[in-house]
């Protein structure tokens, strides 16, 4: 932000005139440099806050998942509970058997064997 020298109103660097009083803005190198530093600092803080929120969410998620899983097994049954499966396929039910069914109108065709001559 650039401060207007006439009315001390903060303005964006891209504006040629003050948004408040309309006078031309004359930005010094120091003002532009300070403005860029402030923007970079604000972006860095925003990025850090975003990272912190993401890690906090993951931490809360894993704590709640652990709590939910621990509630599935009562304390009395921990000794007799079956061990946790090592693969996902152990959790799935067994596959259903496949019963071959011939399509409608199907007739079996037997090819003659090499020794058969008719």
Tell me about this structure.
It is a single chain. The protein is elongated and about 110 Å long. It has one helix and two strands; from the N terminus they run E-E-H. It has a two-stranded antiparallel sheet with strand order 1-2. 37% of the residues lie in helices and 3% in strands. The mean pLDDT is 77. It has a domain at 2-72. By secondary structure, the protein is mainly alpha-helical. The longest helix is centred in the middle third of the chain and has 44 residues, at 29-72.
What features would you highlight for this structure?
single chain; 118 residues; two-stranded antiparallel ribbon; 2 strands; elongated
**Backbone shape:** elongated
Order of helices and strands: EEH
Helix count from the secondary structure assignment? 1
Mean pLDDT: 77
Strand content range:
under 5%
As a percent range, the share of helical residues equals: 25-40%
Largest sheet: 2 strands, antiparallel
Task: Summarize it.
By secondary structure, the protein is mainly alpha-helical.
Topology, pairings included?
Elements: E1 2-3, E2 10-11, H1 29-72
Antiparallel strand pairs: 1-2
């Amino acid at each position: 932000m650039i401060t207007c020298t006439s009315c001390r109103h903060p303005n964006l660097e891209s504006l040629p005139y003050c948004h408040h009083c309309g006078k031309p803005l004359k930005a010094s190198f120091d003002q532009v440099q300070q403005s860029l530093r402030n923007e970079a600092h604000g972006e860095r803080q925003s990025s850090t806050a975003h990272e912190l929120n993401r890690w906090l969410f993951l931490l809360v998620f894993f704590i709640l998942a652990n709590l939910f899983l621990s509630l599935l097994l009562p304390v009395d049954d921990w000794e007799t509970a079956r061990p946790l499966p090592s693969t996902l396929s152990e959790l799935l039910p067994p596959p259903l058997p496949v019963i071959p069914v011939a399509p409608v109108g199907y007739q079996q065709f037997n090819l003659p064997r090499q020794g058969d001559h008719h």
